[in-house]
Amino acid sequence: MVEDDKKSGEGEAFHFISYVPYRGQLYELDGLQKGPIELGACTNDNWLAKAQEEIQKRISTHEGSEIRFVLMSLGQSLLDKYSKELEECTKKKEELEAAVGRGGEEATNAQALLASLNYQMNDLASNLNAEKSKRDGYKLENKRRKHNYIPFLLKFLKIVAEKGQLQPLVEKAKQDAN
């Protein structure tokens, strides 16, 4: 996306650059270039490190003259990740409990693994609840950001003015600004 204020001749130009692994190569996708730029070979294990190098190179070329950089990463939702891991642990727990029920040497090993698995499941459940709480907070913050506070503020100012308190507050604000 390019956003530019061309009418005034001033303004800011913004563009996005992506780093993408594709068929064993790392590519730079820059909205201001004609096409993808091949940066070299990579694997699923090392492409992030290679992209990091490229990002650091790009930032260092603007060192001292530009400080406005934003990095964004797209990945699996933590909510989905924790839910999936918890589901897998639940299945594993059922298998281990069945092994304990059968008895024998296998049961002893299964009991030890169960203790570790229960700890892991509690940790995952805690992470899942924290992620849900965070998302609930995002929803509330978004509602507040989109809410129209103007009618409330107008009513508030009207009440303060009717009580004769608005002018002293304005004068105090002017003094504090100086």
- Strand portion: 5-15%
End-to-end distance: 42 Å
CATH superfamily of the largest domain: Ubiquitin carboxyl-terminal hydrolase, domain 2
- The geometry reads as flat
Order of helices and strands: EEEHHHHH
Sheet with the most strands, sense and barrel status: 3 strands, antiparallel
Strand order in the largest sheet: 1-2-3
| Helix count from the secondary structure assignment | 5
Describe the structure.
This protein has a three-stranded antiparallel β-sheet with strand order 1-2-3, with helices on one face. A hairpin with a 2-residue loop joins strand 1 (17-22) and strand 2 (25-30). The protein folds into three domains: 1-74, 2-Layer Sandwich (Dna Ligase, domain 1), CATH 3.30.1490.420; 78-146; 148-178. The protein is built from five helices and three strands. The protein has helices spanning 47-61, 78-102, 105-146, 150-162, 166-177, and strands spanning 17-22, 25-30, 37-41. Helix 2 (78-102) runs antiparallel to helix 3.
Topology:
Blueprint: E1 17-22, E2 25-30, E3 37-41, H1 47-61, H2 78-102, H3 105-146, H4 150-162, H5 166-177
Antiparallel strand pairs: 1-2, 2-3
Key structural traits:
178 residues; mainly alpha; Dna Ligase, domain 1; 3 domains; 3-stranded antiparallel beta sheet; 60% helix
The gist of it:
With 178 residues, this protein is mostly helical.
